[in-house]
Fold these 4 entries.
Entry 1:
Amino acid sequence: MIKKHYGTKEDYKLAEQLRDIGFPQEITPGSDRYFVISKCKEGWTVIMQMTQIKNYSNYIKVPTLEKVLEELGDRFVSLFKEAKCWSAQTDEIETKGSTSLEAVTKLYIELNKKK
């Protein structure tokens, strides 16, 4: 059975940015989430279990918080909840997001933008 979750356009844009700067996109069914590259009436569809999907080329990986932190490695310094948002930091950069994953994802994107 395929479980679906509905994300936001911002979630999709962040996932797309991660892909475009080279975030690992390997398919590991059951351990990560993936966005479907099509819009539905509820928003952007996120497939939660990929075991029944045959063509993975239409999906963009939305990694777990743990995976993004792993990719950041020693550059990551802190993550904390402020009054109205989350904040993620390195020694040089601070990013904010409505969720811990969004804040850390934005941090990864800022650190890895192609210059």
Entry 2:
Amino acid sequence: MTDYNPDDYLFFWGGVFSNFYPCKFIVDNITYNCSEQYFMKKKQETFDIEDTILAQCILEESNPIKIKRYGRKVKNFDEVQWSKIRYDIMKKAVYEKFSQNKDLKKILIDTNDKILVEASPFDKIWGIGMGEKNAKITHPDNWKGKNLLGKIIMEVREELKTYPINTNKKNEIDNFNIKTYK
């Protein structure tokens, strides 16, 4: 077990690193109001493409809690398939969120090399399944969740530090197409 220093970590639950944080970004000529909206729209497109009413509800809603509820109404949802593609979809959402919003990008870059951790006591996939208080006194090897969101945000941070906005890497990310996973 490696040494654990909580000062090397930045714990969040809510705020600018949250998928619910309001910010506008555009992908394929569609304006999204938060990364959760993009994520739920891609879930709907992947499993329930013909439900145009659900698609419209997701895109017209501004409340991320309601958007998430719409995402739970997607028909034909397949957890096995979703678990194979959700990481890339979320990474695209997070990349667009931070690359298109200069103030958010600065906040992210200013975290330097901190290990970013979604300290959600309720989420064991995107978060660590425990709150910040408990996380600070528990070695990361014993956290209950995967912290996928924290890992994605750190990857995006490195890409934004490494690649100026108008490079081939940006174009590769822009050309991401979820249908290739079907």
Entry 3:
Amino acid sequence: MTSQPQSDESASVVWLTPAEAAPRLKVGPRALQRWANARKLTVARTLGGHRRYRETEVDALAASLLTEAEAA
């Protein structure tokens, strides 16, 4: 298992790797990085510098993207 970002709240937060988050959003890992840079997703870094994304935010963004696609 990969190391998780360290904080008091991390015990209750599920963090996803880019490889886990990207398929949920039907995008590549690079798109996740751009969205994190644009502050659409919260990103945390492990001690090794790897990115982790909050599962709840990834799922919420996936739902909003689905809603937008259905409206179009």
Entry 4:
Amino acid sequence: MSLTTIFEPLTLDEENERIHLERQVERAFYQAGLALQLLRDKKLYRSTHNTFQEYCQDRFGFTKRSAYYLIDAVQIVDNLQKSEPLVHIMPTSERQCRALKSLKPSQQQEAWNKAVARAKGKVPSSRIVRDVVNQIKNQDTQAKNNHQLKSKIKFIPLKNPSIGQRVRICSEHPLFARELATITQIPNNRSVVLELDNQSRQLIDIKDLEIERVVDKNNKVTASSEGVNYVRGVGLEWYVRVDEATWNKLNKYAQKVGTATLGSAIARLLESEMK
């Protein structure tokens, strides 16, 4: 048998007083930060101390970092209060604001709203805020990296097709413009059979194909060095320079034995020679 606790109800005045006092407790860190900011900016410590850091340490037992955490929290809370739609759940401690400092003002508002939502409409813990901030920063880093990669990539006409090679159909093609595909067959020196990403196969002229290459700061294509190279979207690849005659022989051998890539053809050829 469970016992039900009966609480004594508050009068309207008592309820209002409780809310007022709770707000003071919740904003204690904000008031402290605001006071420290004024003490620093007006140099009201100068009659007893040479620096703001010494003053905070002697008067409040604060390190310089702790004092500035509180001051930074004031700016963050002020920014959150400008959020649209209006934020009703506000930080109740400096630690909840600390991680937001590394974000832009608009991102601070976004991060706080997401943290409140993750806390199911309640004041989020500093851990929740930190997790949301890290998520936003990781997204920004990924977007920046993608932009940098795109700025270094250029598509150039394909000259020497090989089985298994990834290519893009040029933008002028009437049916498959900018489609990505893999070369599966080379029936002649004018066209290739492609397997598109949707699994369909098409016979396409070589003149309509492009390959992705890295360009330098002068927009010149950088040649892949012999050995191990990294290709975006593919990973590590191994390059060996061969003359045109050897290249054509490898392609013919790949078609003869029915391998999907030149790499597989070379592997089969080496295996047969080593037996």
